[in-house]
Amino acid sequence: MRRLLLVLLVPLFSFAQNIVEPYVVADFLYWKVKQEGPTLAASGFGTPLDPVNGKGKGYLLDFDGKVGFRVGLGMAIAHDGWDFFLGYTQIHGDGARNVEGNIGDPVPIRPSWDVANGGYVSELTKAEGNWDFQGHIFDLEWGRKLCLSSFMTFRPFFGLKGFINASDYTMSLAGAVNDPILGTHRIDLTQDFWGIGIRFGFNTNFYLTKNWSVFGNFAASDCWSRFTSKRHDTATMSVIANPFDLIHTVFKDHTMVPIIELSTGVSWEMGVSDDLFRVLLRAGWEEQIWWNTNRFIQAAQHDEGKGNLLFQGLTVRFRFDF
User: What average pLDDT does this structure show over 265-280?
Assistant: First the structure.
């Protein structure tokens, strides 16, 4: 038993002695989150029996910036200057659009999202769309800072990326089903997806003075991901008393999701208490692209749509090294 304890505890004590400086990170995020693909309505589309009498346009969702945060814990070890970092990011996004029209307009407004049977409501008097996103992202890094010159540092790293994300898109359509019959059509789309994969990249700093620098960071990931997509369409008609279902289904699929992360900005850092501790403040612009995450179910093709998930916005970081 004593030998077993020694075998287990000695490596832990040895590792603890090699810790040089733990550090904590807190980021304030103001990002715009956008999902490509979901549309609401469009005008300027006709048929041989009902040709277009003017130029139309598309009505897309408007996406707003939202506040998020990132927190992390890291530690540098004496072994060859390596460091470990574990970060958690929480981000929220939404998009919305409202459109109104009149039956009989020269350029009528029609649903542009893929709908059942070519469109239940063919000519819109009102359309409302709302999209919502919740993201929980985890990053694990193992890296090493290298001094390439007196004024430049370079930190390559590799590790893992994981995430648990959810998005919802709801459309409420009202208008003419078949003139003079009126009706409504509500489309509820949900998409939950999680994944894990390899992540690698680098951090660079170009020092202008001892305390001030400009930075540029890059990371790439390829995550094995599970998508669960659901769709539920309900409708009403002026000549039928009760609402009825048009679509009610669920798709599940696995795929790879490539992710690219870019950031750049300005950094300031300073040692305190005779360099026993260190403080860093950083502000910059960050962008991410997640490929082909739009898996909302389409009715006509019975398949997933296409579109990337985009993050972009301001990131302000505070870091404290113990």
Answer: 90
